[in-house]
Amino acid sequence: MEALPLGQLLLTGVPGPELDPETAARLKRIQPGGFILFSRNIKSPEQLRKLTDDLRDLSDIEPIITIDQEGGRVSRLREIGQEPPNAQQLREKGDRALIKEHGRITGKLLRHFGFNLDLCPVLDISYDDEADNSLKGRCYGTNPQEVIDNAGIFNRAMRSQGILSCGKHFPAYGPAEVDPHEELPVINRSKEQMLAEELIPFTALLDELDSMMIGHAYYPAFDPDRNRWPSSLSHNIITKFLRDQLGFDDSLVMTDDLDMGAILNEVGFEQTIQEAIKAGNDLCMICHRLEMVEDAKKILEKVPEPALHDSLRRVELAKAKLSPPDHFDLDVFSKINDDIWNLRVATLGEELAASRSPENGKRSPVELY
Q1: In this structure, are residues 319 and 31 in contact, taking their beta carbons and an 8 Å threshold?
Q2: Rounded to whole angstroms, how far apart are CA atoms 288 and 17?
Q3: Distance between CA 189 and CA 133 in Å, rounded?
Q4: 17 backbone dihedrals φ, ψ, rounded to 5°
Q5: DSSP at 85
Q6: Torsion angle of alpha carbons 261, 259, 325, 331, nearest 10°?
Q7: CATH code at 20-355
Q8: 238 to each of 54, 195, 204, 264, how far by Cα in Å?
Q9: pTM more than 0.90
Q10: Which site in 64, 158, 186, 290 is 20 to 30 Å from 111, CA atoms measured?
Q11: 86 vs 178, residue with greater confidence
Q12: How many CB atoms sit inside 10 A of residue 327's CB?
């Protein structure tokens, strides 16, 4: 196993808007399977495309380059352009053509900047649009069928532009009463209850998703013998349920950010990395404690060989689906940006469109990442 590129099992953040020599050397050593960018990485259109090009250049194997570009406050690219409407605004408008346009534009925008996977759609059901669980504005429906219809339209339109998708947050954050960025939610729903409601959007769209993100919550129904054990580290949820029972067996599965409070407050770093892969994840996402990524690669050497082999095989399968970026052209970006504004006006009206989502991070750290 020594020759296998274990760094391929890591999805890492990047410190800033450009690669300093030290960061570039570290990433070249680690050879991560992918990179996730945040607002801290985005200063101008030209700078962003140079950054994604540089990340490709230092990678021996074509990397996944991903981002959270959902709409509304979770739209990293609003740092350099217009803010698309969010899922709730689109669902309340009730025009499926606008949702399809949102998917199309999102795919074109990401492809232009060198991304190849978007960390969406959110497939959680909103039981309370004001709940303090990080989902405000991000849900495509208040019942399973509404999520399936709306998220499915977005997902198909985005994928048609050559951008891979990621369903989140499996097996469901909807009932969560706290924000996993800060602490571990406990969701006391039986497996049967979840299959009859929260899990329906995931199971209905399973064949149309390129990857799945596992959220951080404790589900006693799935792990009754492991108190406060996060779903993102759960073999019962990821391998036995998602892969073996639901049939997502050869597809890419990743943890949500392992730098969230839901993990940091519950499990040590070494155990987190080992258990994430043993549970059935293929990518361990480390977004903010970037000094730990090199340690994570060393920790992976302690994971049993069969689990490493299976995860590396699935990463390789996923990467065979990646599309190269479009040629970069500022005029093309300007046209896409105009399309986003027009979509925003069509969804919200001219007056509301002029007012962006707040950027103070008071609702959830998801806004500041």
Answers
A1: no
A2: 14
A3: 16
A4: -75, -10
A5: P
A6: 60
A7: 3.20.20.300
A8: 33, 15, 17, 20
A9: yes
A10: 290
A11: 86
A12: 7
